Hints:
Elements: E1 3-5, E2 8-15, E3 23-25, E4 29-37, E5 39-44, E6 47-52, E7 56-59, E8 65-68, E9 75-83, E10 92-95
Antiparallel strand pairs: 1-2, 2-9, 3-10, 4-7, 4-9, 5-6, 5-8
Amino acid sequence: MLDAGPGYAVKRIRVAPGGVLSLQRHRHRAESWTMVAGVAEVTLGSEIFAAMAGETIEIALGQIHRIANRGAEDVVFIEVQMGGILDEADIERLQDDYGRT
């Protein structure tokens, strides 16, 4: 966690080569991702696209999303969470490679 306050939290997230975060959505928060290193494969709703350093992705409340790293270098992004509940209990995992659904 980089910072947190009423209604917001800021995290730095690293995804190693071959890593895939869970396909998820949130009922109580929106997110904004700013890519800072690597090239990510982003799933946002029904779209899948590449995102690289300098790009920002906006995730609306309830929108399905995921990041995967299909490349050889780390993917790093800054996640800003905004909403009334900003904890792990607000993650609804729809698919997860690590058995956390």
